[in-house]
Each structure stands twice: as structure tokens, then as C-alpha cells.
Amino acid sequence: MKTSAPLLLIATLLAGCAPQAITGYTTVTVRELKTAYDAGAYVLDVRTPAEYAEGHLARAVNLPLDQVQARAGEVPADRPVYVICRSGNRSAQASAILTMAGKDVRNVGGGMNDWIAAGYPVTR
């Protein structure tokens, strides 16, 4: 599915604060992510490779935000995808893009900042 640039821009801008009815995805806490992660959830980390190398969830797949639209086909469509970044802003943008591509998305509010603050494990 090809999306026009203006429509994508609008969806991306709305993603950070719009309710699920508009964005099509839900925002979850790191506590909810931890439960899903422990059960084997797919986690997509949309930070830069340098940020990812500084610390990430052990099974998280790194796909930088600037590549999400072009590589959305690589993201699973058969199960929920938990999208994380540093603070929740870039993951909200990626979540909007992936939702428009037909993915079942959960944006992780607070991102790695909240994950680390909660004392959850990080791999380097």
C-alpha cells in the first residue's frame, strides 16, 4: 500500500497525542511491555544503531525510524509489534507508519528511559 507524503506527515504528527481511534495503535507502559516481552513478544527498536548499541532489549530488532516506511514489509503482520525508542516520540511516529502499513502495533510510552528507570534488563 503506497501512502501519499502529506497523509503520512499528518498521521505522524498526530501519532504522539491522538487517541487510538485516530492513530490505530495503542500506547502501553513499560510494565505492559515487560509482561509481553517475557511471553515472547516481538519488539522493534526504532532508535539509531548507535543508540541501540548503548543498550537495548535482548531480542529487540533494530530498525531506525528513518527506514521504517521503506522496510515496513520486514515487520511481522501476524502478531503484535511493540515499538520502542528512547522516550516514546519516535516510536509513536513509527507506530503511525506501521499501522498505516497494516501492522498490529503497540507504542511503548516512555521508551527506554522508562524501561531502564524501572530496572528492567538491558543488553549492550
Q: What would you say this structure looks like, in words?
A:
The protein has a single domain, classed as Rhodanese-like domain (Oxidized Rhodanese, domain 1, 3-Layer(aba) Sandwich). The chain has 124 residues and is an alpha/beta fold. The model is unreliable at 15-20 (pLDDT under 50). The chain is 43% helix and 14% strand. Keywords: Signal, Transferase. It comes from Deinococcus metalli.
Q: Which features does this protein show?
A:
single chain; 124 residues; alpha/beta; Oxidized Rhodanese, domain 1; five-stranded parallel β-sheet; 7 helices; 5 strands; 43% helix
Can you summarize this structure?
By secondary structure, the chain is of the alpha/beta class. The protein has helices spanning 5-15, 20-23, 30-38, 49-54, 65-68, 89-100, 111-117; strands spanning 26-28, 42-45, 61-62, 81-84, 105-108. This is Sulfurtransferase.
Order of helices and strands: HHEHEHEHEHEH
Oligomer: single chain
Low-confidence stretches: 15-20
Tally of discrete structural domains: 1
Radius of gyration from the CA trace?
13 Å
| Average pLDDT over all residues | 89
Beta-strand level of the residues, as a percent range?
5-15%
Structural class call reads alpha/beta
Keywords: Signal, Transferase
Organism: Deinococcus metalli
InterPro entries: GlpE_sulfurtransferase (IPR050229), Rhodanese-like_dom (IPR001763), Rhodanese-like_dom_sf (IPR036873)
Protein name: Sulfurtransferase
